[in-house]
Amino acid sequence: MGLLGNFILIFIGLIGFMGVRIYRQSFAPQPKPEMDVAAYWGPGDKALYKEDTAVHPFKISYSEEVIKKLKEKLEDFPELHAPLEGVNFEYGFNSNHLKQVVKYWKDGYLSKWGLRQTYLNKYPHYKTKIQGLDMHFIHVKSEKASDRPVLPILLLHGWPGSVVEFYSLIEKLKGNQEYDFQIVAPSLPGYGWSQASAKKDLGHVEVAVIMRNLMVRLGYQKFYIQGGDWGSIIGSNIATLFPENVLGYHSNMCGAMTNASGLKIFIASFYPEYFIPKEYVHFFYPFWSKFSYLLEESGYMHIQCTKPDTIGTTLSNNPIGLVAYILEKFSTWTNKEYRTLADGGLSKRFTMDALLDNIMVYYLTNSITTSQRLYSEAFTFRELGLGIDRVPTPVPTGCARFQHDLSHSIDWVLKDKYPNLVHSTYHEQGGHFAAMEVPDVVYKDLLEFLQKAQNQGKVKSEL
Questions:
Q1: What is the pLDDT of residues 235-256, one digit of tens each?
Q2: b or e along 308-342 (b: 16 or more beta carbons within 10 Å of the residue's beta carbon)?
Q3: What's CA 273's distance to the chain center, in Å?
Q4: Active site residue 375
Q5: Which of 166, 124, 160, 205 lies closest to 390 in space, CA to CA?
Q6: Cα–Cα distance between 359 and 354 in angstroms, integer?
Q7: Residues near 424 by Cβ (< 8 Å), separated by ≥ 6?
Q8: How far is Cα 402 from Cα 91, in angstroms, rounded to an integer?
Q9: By the 8 A CB rule, do 201 and 118 touch?
Q10: Who contacts 94 (Cβ-Cβ below 8 Å, separation ≥6)?
């Protein structure tokens, strides 16, 4: 072959070796990161901390003085600029409609606060210390023994939602005649009545550890997970880090940010019907239209990733600013076409009482700043360096897509992260806050997934 031939073979071999190495570094699955399951997030020195593992009943209760002060703030309505002519919600929350919302909050909702507070307390609430933080959660379990299969399930909310997103879904799960659901719906750290971290670096991966520890504390060594928004990401992390504890993971905001995802989305755009049922291609494409919408709606994320305390300061103890900031998301993220409506379409999918229940969680607990810090902690180089998106999740996984959500992932992408994707559905109605907007649909989809996950477990046990 000669010297030149040998050189060519060596060169080809080196290129092949480097190619394999680059592939492994860039695209190959990664092992799960080692996490400190006892990391301390409370104030002060961990050495001085002794965890109280008791679970304490908790009741939502605010004095008349607190409600009176809120009403006074709502009466002090600022002088706002009128919307531009012909503009509804295209520039953000319409100031004319904001006056109506604030008036109802002050004169309607707060006049029946006793009834709303009773409603918020309709399910049993508790608190317990986990890794230095006082964690709040709803825990609904059957009081009587039954011969039905017992299914523990963890419901995880996101931002700018709260546990009240799940109230209708909890009611449906309670009434199920096939399974005996043991339901846990916690407030994420820094949200609602859950204590915020006193230390840096509590990102979504670390929150997953806390949520798993909460379930184990309550006696659930194995459980299912359902979540959207941050709840989807945190639920995925739990399934990835602790597959021995997770029976199945169901999400209404499925995503997988692997290194190959962008390439696969691009390839699929040339012939999407090959990768997606033809009648649902519009969920994903045209790509640039979808991407443009996501870019347009993600300005809040950049602010909260970089300066959460600044935006938090403008919203803390500012109920009028808070309601505008949060309800604008409930408008546009439910259906982008609602931007053209005078009321942002808020009355189409939600009751104002339900929307204000969620606002009251943030206002009464003064948790808007601490809730937004999760964004800042989630996008640090340290958190991204954990590589959690490149760790396959082996547990049975279900994906429920609601057309008007902010974004969607195709199965070809999802299966890199979720090789055990047993359930993949599409729903023409519904948006980002699906559990609150269309609870019947979420409930039915969840039951279909649970049935598939149960059947898969039976097959494996018979092998």
A1: 999 999 999 999 999 999 998 8
A2: beebbeebbebbbbbbbbbbbbbbbbbbbebbebe
A3: 29
A4: yes
A5: 205
A6: 9
A7: 398, 399, 401, 411, 414
A8: 25
A9: no
A10: 83, 87, 88, 342, 343, 344
Q: From the candidates 126, 375, 418, 443, which is the catalytic residue?
A: 375
d(C-alpha 290, C-alpha 117), whole Å: 40
Decide: 449 and 398 in contact? Cβ < 8 Å. yes
Give the pLDDT band (50/70/90) at residue 17. Answer: very low
| Residue 204 appears among annotated catalytic residues | no
* Mean pLDDT, rounded, for 80-86: 95
Question: Cα(420)–Cα(398) distance, rounded to whole angstroms?
Answer: 9
CA distances from 131 to 35, 40, 158, 219, 222 (A): 13, 5, 21, 17, 20
Contact, 136 vs 193, CB < 8 A? yes
| Of the candidates 245, 119, 123, the residue with the CA atom closest to the CA atom of residue 184 | 123
Q: Of 167, 179, 432, 445, which residue is the catalytic one?
A: 432
Asked if pLDDT for residue 36 goes beyond 90, the answer is yes
Please, are residues 371 and 159 in contact by the beta-carbon 8 Å criterion?
yes
Which is the catalytic residue, given 126, 220, 229, 362? 229
Q: Which residue has the higher pLDDT, 146 or 300?
A: 300
Digit-coded pLDDT (tens) for 424-446: 999 999 999 999 999 999 999 99
d(CA 319, CA 101): 11
Say whether pTM exceeds 0.85.
Answer: yes
Percent of the residues in the chain that have a pLDDT greater than 90, as a whole number: 80
pLDDT tens digit sequence for 278-317: 999 999 899 888 888 888 889 999 999 999 999 999 999 9
HEC profile of 325-346: HHHHHHHHCCCHHHHHCCCCCH
What is the distance between the alpha carbons of residues 184 and 340, in angstroms, rounded to a whole number?
38
Question: Residue 97 catalytic?
Answer: no
